[in-house]
Write a sequence for this structure.
């Protein structure tokens, strides 16, 4: 890929972020296309990425989920493992029209399609209904040291993680888990950075737990 390819991808990232930031009804499709673009330039070996699923009020609420199968929400990666992608979006009235926001999001790296052998998982819930941090990380593994864990398992322990973007998850897979990249780093690094910069400007930053 060339500098021209990079400029094309960056231009499309700018276009799509402008559309979903505007919050009109086409914001959902723009966000879904942006996620597919990010997957294609990073960890996706083929054309199948995420899909849009309509909720009970399709003009105001939709889901972005991995793959084409209705009963699954995973994307097959270039290392033949899987990334679970599930993001629920909603439109909220604003003084200038509408804003699109994330109600909940899950990103989970797993070895099998069913998710019985997962490695790590990030979750975000805008309005949590339990004691777990609204944004948290879970890791499936064992600790070296003998300490008390939530329900006795590391994987059931919810580490406060701040708000996690899909861009940071993709970067983690590429740089720390050595998932083979779909494009050279001269392409995928700037594309992820451009998209994540927008996320950092608008992301809701929840507290690490309930206030009472």
């Amino acid at each position: 890929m060339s500098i021209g390819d990079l400029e094309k991808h960056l231009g499309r990232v700018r276009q799509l972020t402008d559309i979903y930031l505007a919050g009109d009804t086409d914001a959902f499709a723009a966000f879904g296309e942006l996620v597919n673009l990010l997957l294609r330039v990073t960890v996706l070996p083929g054309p199948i990425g995420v899909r849009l699923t309509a909720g009970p009020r399709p003009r105001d609420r939709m889901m972005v989920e991995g793959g084409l199968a209705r009963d699954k929400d995973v994307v097959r990666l270039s290392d033949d493992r899987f990334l679970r992608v599930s993001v629920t979006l909603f439109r909220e009235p604003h003084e200038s029209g509408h804003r699109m926001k994330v109600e909940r999001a899950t990103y989970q790296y797993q070895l099998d399609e069913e998710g019985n052998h997962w490695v790590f998982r990030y979750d975000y819930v805008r309005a949590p209904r339990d004691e777990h941090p609204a944004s948290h990380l879970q890791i499936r593994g064992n600790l070296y040291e003998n300490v008390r864990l939530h329900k006795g398992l590391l994987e059931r322990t919810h580490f406060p993680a701040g708000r996690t973007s899909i861009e940071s998850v993709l970067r983690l897979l590429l740089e720390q888990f050595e998932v083979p990249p779909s494009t050279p780093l001269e392409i995928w690094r700037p594309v992820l950075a451009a998209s994540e910069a927008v996320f950092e400007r608008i992301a809701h930053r929840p507290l690490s737990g309930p206030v009472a």
Observations:
- The chain has one domain: 3-202.
